[in-house]
Amino acid sequence: GAVVSQHPSRVICKSGTSVKIECRSLDFQATTMFWYRQFPKQSLMLMATSNEGSKATYEQGVEKDKFLINHASLTLSTLTVTSAHPEDSSFYICSVPPLAGETQYFGPGTRLLVL
Amino acid sequence: QKEVEQNSGPLSVPEGAIASLNCTYSDRVSQSFFWYRQYSGKSPELIMSIYSNGDKEDGRFTAQLNKASQYVSLLIRDSQPSDSATYLCAVNRRAGTASKLTFGTGTRLQVTL
User: Fold this and answer.
1) Which partner for A97 in A66, B60, B79, B99 could form a disulfide, CB atoms 3.0-4.6 Å apart?
2) CA B79 to chain centre
3) Structural contact between residues A9 and A22, judged by C-beta atoms closer than 8 angstroms
4) Sign of CA dihedral A55, A56, A61, A62
5) Can you list the residues of chain A whose pLDDT is less than 70?
């Protein structure tokens, strides 16, 4: 399967600060990447679709001004949680679909804790 | 009605037994179906994919799909303690060129010694 990395793997920050999470596709180019969030004992919820060279597509209920997505190249997408609050504490996971209609390969995830 | 439904479990099976995990979905136009395994604190990893009705076998795993009943299942033969994890069912609705997956809440499997 595809190799996807995320950085950082874990971050603790103070309320009100911004946190940037990177997602890299290491062995193929990706015009699309997905960002998910998973709260404890819940399933993955799609937050947004990151599109290389254009604006991200956000799912209903996800604030685009709070969760800034930049897909700067075919191998890198970043998610910035702006003015993070304790309720943003979660497990953030990116995924990459190598081919339309095929599966997605997930990064190892980033655990965010906002104090 | 949830788009993808799974029994949350836990499903407890003894070592060596067959574990049967079930999933139903609501969108009839769904075309691709996946089973992911997620260990606690880790991201999901792909176990099986299935696209047409019937059975698909890969080692100890068998995925079964019945589109008429909107039902997909995963059988794990000779269950091992290392199979203890949460199993997520995912459905692809093929939204344009992006493969948007919808996940169930997962079934927690416990394989006991």
Assistant:
1) B99
2) 15
3) no
4) negative
5) 1-2, 98-102
Name residue B35's amino acid: W
CB atoms within 10 A of CB B58: 11
Q: Which amino acid is at B26?
A: S
Pairing of strands B11-14, B107-112: parallel
Residue with tokens 């010694």: B113
Which of B4, B25, B40, B43 should one mutate to test binding to chain A, selecting the residue with the greatest count of A CBs within 10 A? B43
Closest Cα in chain B, distance from residue A109 (Å) = 6
Distance CA(B57)–CA(B89), nearest Å, equals 16
- Burial tier of B95 (Cβ tally within 10 Å: 0-12, 13-18, 19+): exposed
Q: Say which amino acid occupies A79.
A: L
């949830």: which residue's tokens? Answer: B2
How confident is the model over A38-66, as pLDDT tens digits? 998 888 999 999 988 889 999 999 999 99
Q: Are A76 and A23 in contact (CB under 8 A)?
A: yes
